[in-house]
Amino acid sequence: MRRFIKNLPVGIASGIVTIIAIYLSLSSNPLGDTDIMLFENADKFFHAVMYFGVTSVYYLDYAKSRLPHHTKLNGEAAVTVAAIVFSGLMEIGQGLIGNRTMDPWDFAANVAGALLAFVFVKFYFITVFRHYLLRHHRHHHSSHRKSNEASE
Prior knowledge:
- Helices cover 78% and strands 0% of the residues.
- The protein contains 5 helices and no strands.
- The chain has helices at residues 2-7, 12-26, 42-66, 73-97, 104-151.
- The radius of gyration is 20 Å and the shape is elongated.
């Protein structure tokens, strides 16, 4: 799986997630006729989850593009703002197309999901992601350094 992730060109995952988000946002009935009411305002929860996922994928694609270097805060913030702007455009698109309504509370949930993704990925998951993708590289690098030190 690591090889697949490493070999996947940067931007492909973000593109796929964007297409899915566009479909889910602009389709008149993306999930079919389901009358299941999970809990009050469940749609807001799902908006936050969707934009948590969108922002996370964007952020990890950005991080992968920077490997083996670390990401920079201004780039991370730009990725998060891009996801928030995208979510706003989807809400505006819903109002313009007319098959769904534009809801400022949906946008607020999108922003909350994007900001939570920023915090989660920035302060926890990026370390795991970098370690996962660079584990072999680091091992090779450290064993190479040890062999150089031994030969001196």
